[in-house]
Amino acid sequence: MAERDQAVQRIPEILRDTGWTVVLVGEEQSGKLAQVTAGLRRGPDPSGSGKLITSGFSYWGLESTVAWAHACNDLYYPVMRESIGSFSRRLRAVADRLPAGPLHYVSLGPGTGQKDQALLRYLDRQGRTGYYIPVDVSAEMLRLGQREALEHLHVPPADVLPVQLDFSLPANLDRLSTLVRRVVGDEPVVYSLLGNTLANFDSDTQLLTLLAEKLLRPQDRFLLEVASTAGQDEQAARAAAQEYENSPRFREFVTSALMQYTDLQIDLNSLTCEGLVEDDRALLVRVVYRNRTGGTLELTLPDRSTVPFPDQDTIRLYLSRKYTREGLEKMLVDARVTKAGETHEVGHTAFDRPAFGLALLLLQGGEAAPGPVTGPNPFRD
Ligand SMILES: C[S@@+](CC[C@H](N)C(=O)[O-])C[C@H]1O[C@@H](n2cnc3c(N)ncnc32)[C@H](O)[C@@H]1O
């Protein structure tokens, strides 16, 4: 037997000591650093469409992971806290539509892990838990999320397989799909993309299409959670932006990537959250850092190269959306997925504030996916 195989065989034994976790790293991390540097090197654009930190990099690394965990608990940032707090209840509304029997769970972007715990707990109570495969671009987030997700549950360590990988790249999804199929064979999988993560991507529909196309087989399901809006005017867009603006912990989180990747002296007053109406499909929120010093600054990037940051130039730090019902329906049609279950919470509304809510959708693929990938399961055989 090859030495590498022998080492892999010993992993379940090593994992009996709870201090260890195994992570499969699916891509070169140095390549990721080049990607983040390229985003920060883009030309000046005072309108917020130039320099940027794309989704994934906002959460990458220890500082951002810790800052995200704090933001999720911020009383002034109710969006995430409420979405985590109400998840178990909302899950129950769609869970009877999940495939029967043992179910494997692949969580795309588990974050702090509480929602994964709710789903795993639901399966555990019925004795249906299969493999748990959390997938995240951030190794630190994986470790934190995994600990929270498995707390007080009886999932054997050998049935947990964290994967560090950027799931927005088609080649990575091909590799992930092959890995998952090797591990589970023909048994059904439920994938999840929760916490409005889809809304962080410029091409959200394209990403959903790709995830469905590359991952979903007819027997699999996909749990998608997104933020929703009933209103679609300027006032609603401003209110959506304010949700982020009001939270000191969110501001710390969103600037933590800037602190990691540049030598900028961060002034939190230079941060703005802009709310825009995106056609009839969504409200769009852009969190932007603007140079307000009156002069050109020089940014040093991770590769030690420098780039000018002129007065009024911007770095887009975060993107989010709240979808209209019509926008969401159209996205599902475009991504060629159909609903197997859904629950919508409209959220609280006040006389001067629009209603923002959360939609939890259980999706299935529209077309037959390629057949199972044969080959040994590296964690069982
Ligand atoms: C908004 S948080 C959602 C966390 C959790 N699902 C929840 O609902 O509470 C986004 C999560 O996705 C991960 N993520 C974002 N972009 C990613 C990418 N391109 N590839 C892999 N993980 C990504 C982040 O690290 C983070 O864990």
TrEMBL record:
All copies of domain Histidine-specific methyltransferase SAM-dependent, residue ranges: 75-338
UniProt-recorded Gene Ontology molecular function terms: methyltransferase activity
Pfam (any one): Methyltransf_33
Entry keywords, A to Z: Methyltransferase, Transferase
Highest rank taxon of the organism: Bacteria
Cross-referenced InterPro entries: EgtD_Methyltrsf_superfamily, MeTrfase_dom, SAM-dependent_MTases_sf
Entry's Gene Ontology BP terms: methylation
PANTHER family in alphabetical order: ERGOTHIONEINE BIOSYNTHESIS PROTEIN 1 (PTHR43397)
Protein name (database record): Histidine-specific methyltransferase SAM-dependent domain-containing protein
